[in-house]
Amino acid sequence: MNAPWKPAGSALRDPFQAFVCDDHSFDVVRSIAIEMGWPPEKVNKGGLRNAVQSLSVSTSPQILFVDMSESGDPLNDINGLAEVCEPGTVVIAAGQVNDVRLYRDLVASGIQDYLLKPFGPDQLRDAVAQAQAVFLAPRTDVGAERAHMAVAVIGTRGGSGSSTVATSLAWMLSDKAKRLTALLDLDVHFGTGALAMDLEPGRGLTDAIDNPSRIDGLFIERAMVRASDKLAILSAEAPISQPMMTDGGAFYQLQEEFRSAFECSILDLPRAMLIQHPHLMNEVNVAVVVTELTLAAARDSIRILSWLKSNTPQTRIIVVANRVHANALEINRKDFEQSIERKVDIVIPFDTRIASQAAKLGKTFAEVAKGSKAGVACAALMNEAMGAVDDPDVAKPASKGGSSLLGKFDLKAMMPKGKSGAKAAAK
Fold first, then answer.
1. DSSP-assigned beta bridge partners for residue 324
2. Number of structural domains in the chain
């Protein structure tokens, strides 16, 4: 009930077991069990508390049906059931309380579905079919095949396009590399991860922040919004009047669940998170630093790159120059690279047409940019990120010069001098 389904240990477990309170429910559940080819004797009289007592001394089944009609505190009793259920058990509950808040709380606590009594055979049959579908969901243990790939995308300045890069990278990993991918947009109030793919973000991320203890495999399955068979998104549009008070524990717990449920996880990480929750970078393989070629972005790139080098030396860094307009550069690429003392790995050209079309179609920038220079650059970023994980011994660019910020970043040398300087800066 509290972990992703792992079929390896299912052979010793019963496929179905039920605990019901009344004769009508008993007859309906028993008839469906016989129809599915399950032993009818596995349908027992007695409700939720009887289920807890029985399963505390026996192995829990693959699918468990429990009647909560006689429970005075359904949420507390469901949590007690979770303690005696083995990982992978899918729970269907039934009760007489018609309350949407109770339903949401029960689903958030880990049950698969809640049926309002009295229910009919068709309702139960549908619920059982959905429970069986959980077993076929792509939540396999990928650790034995290849290491989990965790990528943090960090913008040096607002408007640098880091969210565009994050959504594009997530789409390419799922569509082109065929890897099961999760996108976590940590801009809780103004995130655009779901918006970029024309999806409703839902309440999954805010619920996770409010109730970190409920984060488990089943929570991830229900809270994340599916963009495709291989791409899921966890995003939010929390009210501006609702501050999110968190120590970052929920975010870290989400990362842990992603590692067991997905092959790749992309974190759209606002730069302020590096200050507030630095532990989020502990398990990140690749940090994609997205910047524009401007004076302010050069300054902040130096600071962020220095932070990453000091705090996450195990992380491979990829610098992406985004929205590069060849005829309107505040700083040319060579001067920018000299200021940050390393090469820019990927340059994504500025293309208003592609960006506008992607927004209108509700698709990622990379999906619309296929075949263009911008699309080639996005594909190169994906290959660079995957190569950094597949070949962790690739040397990182070495630093040059002293440690002084002013020594690294010569503001006077980079400021345009008169008309000739302005022309040089535009090249």
1. 349
2. 2
